[in-house]
Amino acid sequence: MSQRLEQLDMQTAATTLVTQTSNLRITETSLPGVLLIQPRVFGDPRGFFMETYRQSVLAEASIRDNFVQDNHSRSSRGVLRGLHYQLRQPQAKLCRVVQGEVLDIAVDIRVGSPNFGKWVGVVLSGENHTQIYIPKGFAHGFAVRSETADFLYKCSDYYDGPDDRGVLWNDPDLAIDWDTPSPVISDKDQRYLPLARIRLDQLPRYEP
Q1: Structure pTM?
Q2: Is 84 a residue of the active site?
């Protein structure tokens, strides 16, 4: 768990092309299962158009989740949200930013995973249009690097308040570089335990 992944931006995070069409390119990050989705943007003096979601293309990349809930959050510079997960109703997430910029973090917290405790960070912004797919069994969080950021994400299961769990954002074993001086963090997020102190029966299980 002490091993960490390098912070990645959208240029360096992609390591393996998973699938590509005329409108969408999907690549795997250095953390297996976490994927980047980059749309082709068609622009002219009027503005731009891009395809942000096509179920058939995602299915070719083994993203076969049935997304049932869309969320939209707006946050100010320095706000850090995470690291969140649900245990009984695990959520895969498909995340993007439509205005502003965030550093988005995914952490593999599946007991028995060969990548347990490893993380990957990707810059999502209204300029690069990149999306990140985070499978079930991963903790997720982000930090805002612009004056404000509008963060949109699809979830494969519904939010369940009593099942809302988390890992401490500054867990020293994870050693995540949030690149955010003096982050603004909720009381709830500050009370989470480091990964090593969470009981194993309170963490998701790895299923090869």
Answers
A1: 0.91
A2: yes
